[in-house]
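Researcher: For the annotation table, I need structure tokens for NAD-dependent epimerase/dehydratase domain-containing protein. Please keep the output clean. Sequence:
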Amino acid sequence: MGNRKLVLVLGATGGIGGALAKVLLARGYRIRALHRLGSAMAKNNPAFEWVQGDAMNAKDVFEAAAGASAIVHGVNPPGYQRWAELVLPMIDNSIAAAKAHGAMILMPGTIYNFGPDAFPLLKEDSPQHPWTKKGAIRVQLEQRLEAAAQYGVRTILVRAGDFFGPDAGNNWFAQGLVKPGKPITSVSLPGKPGLGHAWAYLPDVAETFAQLLEKAPALPPFARFHMAGHYDADGLAMVRAIAKGLGKENIKTRRFPWWIVPVLAPFMPLFKELGEMRYLWQQPLQLDNQHLKGALGEEPQTPLDEAVLTTLKSLKCVA
């Protein structure tokens, strides 16, 4: 028990944090999870070592990171609130803790670091000219991690398309394409048919991080990778996979009601976020994974039909 490497996970109850914690636990790592309700969470998941604290509190993160070889920074301000105020201080807390304890940082990247000038194929060195305030903050976050690598804080950053999968949290699949807990009679399309879009199955993202972590000594101090994930070349591959998961030959589609987004945005922060990210659905979007394949040989990838069926079951859309 004491010889197993310890990983501190910030955001263990979230999508990527939770998925990565499970994969690393299965690989023999000890998982310490920082949570504001740590004592209560320990009853639900005793496999993790839960520590009471807040990722927004530098002292809490510093103390929780003691003895850790890596810190998973999978946390964001709750409810899309106070991004400008909290996102950068939180990564600063993780960087400070990593530096003090000799840990490396595992960081999920986002596609909204990029503006249309970088489309349709995003590479690790594509220009980051974000169109939104949230994107601009994420650019600064990556810049801080890259700067920290120069004084010894190593980082593995993995960027992927839109997440889907079990316990993936807020995502386009569960909140745009289908409605959780309800029979599927049609699929809503955020983009136009024929427009390619990048998707990433969350367990594949977690597996990619885990494999890269095991190769960490051979990676550069700031190692940034892109996952190709599942590229829906005509905008309908997801529809076909959903239909197959339902045991149907085909299923009706309808356009996502973008007109309602600005109406609801003043009252629901999620819709404000959706509106700002609409540009990502107005042109083809694909990620180049050649750098990742150079490091791992192949990108971990669950077959799309299997990934979609598992997701539908987790959303209680099929039995």
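Researcher: And a one-line annotation?
Model: The CA atoms of residues 36 and 53 lie 5 Å apart.
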